[in-house]
Amino acid sequence: MGQPTPATDDGWWRSAVIYQVYVRSFADGDGDGTGDLAGVRARLPYLADLGVDALWFNPWYRSPMKDGGYDVADYRAIDPAFGTLAEAEKLIAEARELGIRTIVDIVPNHVSDQHPWFRAALAGGPERELFHFRPGRGEHGELPPNDWRSEFGGPAWTRLPDGDWYLHLFAPEQPDLNWAHPAVRQEHEDILRFWFERGVAGVRIDSAALLAKDPELPDFTEGRDPHPYVDRDELHDVYRAWRAVADEYGAVFVGEVWLPDTERFARYLRPDELHTAFNFSFMSCPWDAARLRASIDETLAEHAPIGAPATWVLCNHDVTRTATRYGRADTGFDFATKAFGTPTDLELGTRRARAAALLSLALPGAVYVYQGEELGLPEADIPLDRIEDPMHARSGGTDPGRDGCRVPLPWSAGEPHAGFGGEPWLPQPDGWAAYAADRQAEDPRSMLRLYREAIRLRPVFGDGPLTWLPAPDGVLAFARADALCVVNLSDRPVDLPAHSALLLAGGPLDTAGRLPHDTAVWLRA
């Protein structure tokens, strides 16, 4: 193929609205029950009408799908369930014609156990050096080489018939790569170029802080500094090399970086490393004004010294849907176990989700919208015999897994399977058609119409800083440019600040013109 014009970095990513596409559940173009690239291409007009600036695709590469595509067997091929490389190239080009850029997901910490490198390693080839193989401990090597635990539960080691063990911080089907080996680094730089040459405008980096490992692979000790496999200093050399590649194409990075230390987090956003990183503290906050304001302030403060834009996200493919998460009276949510203290009030959760959408879209920086959030979808209960997420099995059934936020989208209320296509790979709950995009497009009070209007109006906030305004307890109010955002998280209606016009409201004002509880508005100053 001829090389397309490389993406141009004009700073679009600093204030972009980026829509996350989980291809398997977005839209099914061929009727087999699995979302695919044909389905995405057919829905590009919908995404253009929504007004998003870019699409972030979860891994679409060839994969055995033991972890939703995060077990990659070939980074240069599209999984046949989704389509072909030629279709991906058409999708990238067609989206760009509509003003929508493409961001792809790179999974550098590990590959699939079906990747050619790992299969060669199992056969005893030199590729063994590209992974972490070790003899076991104990009299007969029957114990794992160290005490590391998998992110999915259980030990982070699996023993092979020859007696050696290999490291996998996630599922056994996802062996960790040895990033101390130059071939691993070179291969990933080549993968970046492969996709940049096809017009991709950016890359999301999965588990970005986990790649480098202490070469001694010591036992984990709480408080060990440096950590044996999280946020190690040598990792920054990798991202400096990646940044040089991205700069050749005007492409950008967003890293999945979970770190409690704000100074360590900010190091990834230095001018010669990543452009942006996900902001998980905001997403993790309960529906509490003080906690949310503190998260916003801390986020802006940690980004300010390095000039990097913040990112804001309410939900993704790993997290319970916003309407369900906020529909708890105590809002107490444990992200590790997905457990709550009280049952869901979905009406309350939806009301808060509408307010949270206006809050996040008014903040300075980029916003990520997970597919279906613009429809107000709740978390779905998946029958035990239909759960596919390995987290469920690896936890012994104590973790419900992440499939509840991955249920295929409802497009058309009057069609089978709510217009998704064939019988979906995950079951859609009863009543799912009530959330269908075609029905919401006709309803001026729907979540979809709210998102469309908010994204259209978002430029009124300009690109300047945020100034907090005096507000009653439980209320967030701030100004940017000549626009105001007010969010009432208290339990009573509040008066609006002085303003010249009401631009957008998450719900109706009361009869006295006050802002009801769990509601947000945008105002013209």
Descriptive keywords:
525 residues; alpha/beta; eight-stranded parallel sheet; five-stranded antiparallel sheet; 14 helices; globular
Characterise the protein shown here.
There is one protein chain. The protein has 525 residues and is α/β, with parallel strands linked by helices. α5 packs parallel to α6 (235-249) and α11 (346-362) packs parallel to α14 (447-457). Residues 1-5 and 331-341 have low confidence and may be disordered. It is built from 14 helices and 20 strands. The chain has an eight-stranded parallel beta sheet. A five-stranded antiparallel beta sheet has the order 16-17-18-20-19, with helices on one face. GO terms for molecular function: alpha-amylase activity. This is Glycoside hydrolase family 13 protein. It comes from Actinospica acidiphila. InterPro entries: GH (IPR017853), GH13_cat_dom (IPR006047), O16G_dom_2 (IPR045857). Pfam families: Alpha-amylase.
